[in-house]
Amino acid sequence: MLKIGLTGNIGSGKTTVAKVFEVLGIPVFYADAAAKSVMVSDAELIKGVKQAFGSEAYFADGALNRKHIADIVFNNADELARLNALVHPAVFRAFDEWVLQQTKAAYVIKEAAILFESGSYKMCHQTILVSAPLEHRLQRVMQRDGISRVEAATRDARQMSEEQKSKLANHIINNDGSRLVIPQVLALHQQFLAVKA
Ligand SMILES: CC(C)(COP(=O)(O)OP(=O)(O)OC[C@H]1O[C@@H](n2cnc3c(N)ncnc32)[C@H](O)[C@@H]1O)[C@@H](O)C(=O)NCCC(=O)NCCS
Ligand SMILES: Nc1ncnc2c1ncn2[C@@H]1O[C@H](COP(=O)(O)OP(=O)(O)OP(=O)(O)O)[C@@H](O)[C@H]1O
């Protein structure tokens, strides 16, 4: 199965792009959502997260206390590395299991905020970077999540720069408002279908 990695820095529009691929009938695995799912369903992982970040990492009903964890990990690179080491192996497994179920797909997309940082791009045949200037991205995230500029910028600072990512990516979708996104997705879709054929 042809596996395409899709990434972009915070607020770049990668989820928006992923939805366009879904409309074209291409299955999309959302790594961020999968991470949140395993963090509340995998007993070993829950234990590890509580050991690392305290019992406040979960609410009494078992839901993830995202703010508690985010406040710790996005302000400390070592703590983020610790969280990643706990969560990523479980997400990689979930992706492998999911791919096996996509028997009818022409190809599949893995959407992940940290595709390059986590090394999971190496398990994809090709990669797409969604690119937009920092100011656009911060504005979008502040509007979408109701967080401050400082909070949004702090998260961005924890990610590899767009410049570094653009050197690793096979394809770039420009989402700075100067070009329509849908035609760029359609052009890539045709390329990926041709690989499969
Ligand atoms: C820390 C958590 C609980 C915060 O949740 P919250 O809902 O506030 O943020 P959300 O998950 O929507 O992330 C917002 C953005 O932060 C950035 N971000 C998230 N995780 C990471 C990470 N591990 N490293 C760098 N940036 C990250 C991304 O741009 C992401 O899109 C959550 O991000 C998490 O569990 N992260 C660890 C799991 C992970 O690595 N996910 C990323 C893909 S596998
Ligand atoms: N071309 C665009 N024009 C206007 N708004 C856009 C555009 N692209 C994305 N957005 C909006 O910007 C916000 C961020 O986009 P999206 O959620 O797709 O980004 P993301 O890369 O998945 O972000 P994150 O890493 O934070 O999850 C969303 O509210 C989305 O609707």
TrEMBL record:
It is found in: Cytoplasm. GO terms for molecular function: kinase activity. Keywords: ATP-binding, Coenzyme A biosynthesis, Cytoplasm, Kinase, Nucleotide-binding, Transferase. It is an enzyme of class 2 (transferase). Pathway: Cofactor biosynthesis; coenzyme A biosynthesis; CoA from (R)-pantothenate: step 5/5. It comes from the Bacteria. Belongs to the CoaE family. Catalyzes the phosphorylation of the 3'-hydroxyl group of dephosphocoenzyme A to form coenzyme A. This is Dephospho-CoA kinase. It comes from Mucilaginibacter defluvii. The lineage of its organism: Bacteria, Pseudomonadati, Bacteroidota, Sphingobacteriia, Sphingobacteriales.
